[in-house]
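Reply to dn_fold:

You asked what the input looked like. This is it:
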Amino acid sequence: MVHASPKNCSNSGIGTRSLKETNMQASTQKTKGELIAEIKGKSDSWTIKEVGKNGFIMEMNDSGEITGKYEARFMETTSIHTKTDGTITWEGRGVQNSGPDMIVTTGKGTATRTPTSTKWEGEVTFMTQSPKLAWLNNTKGWQEGTANMADQTFTAKIYAKK
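and this is what came back:
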C-alpha cells in the first residue's frame, strides 16, 4: 500500500495544521487521477521507537483489505515522526497478496490529527513480478486516508498520480 499511513497517532494534542500543509494539500488535489484502490484496515500494534527533544517516532503495524482495480489483503508497517512543532511525517512499507500475486509498496507523506481522527496523504510506489499486475510498476499513487482513533480502524483511497 500502501497505505503506508500514520493512522491513529498518539492523542497528545500535537498536530495543528500549518499553512504550508494546507497549501501542499491544495496543490496535490490537482494531481489526482483515476481511483486505483479503496482500503479498509485496522491497526494491530504500535511501538514507540524514539522520544527526544525533536518529538517522537513510533511504528504501527496494520492489516486489511483492498478493493478496486485489483483485490488484495495487506499488511504494512508505518514509521510516524511527530515533531514538537506539531507536524507529522510518515514512511511506510507493505506487502499485498492478491491471490497468488504479491505487490510490495512503499510510501511517504504527511498527516494531521484531531482528538478523534487522523488524516494523511502521500505518495505510493508499487513493485510486483506479477504479469497480471505489471501495470502497477509504472504507476505512482497518491493516497488519502482517515483513521478513527476510538476503534483503531481506517479507510483510504489510492489514485493514480497524474
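The chain has one domain: 19-161.
Hope that clears it up.
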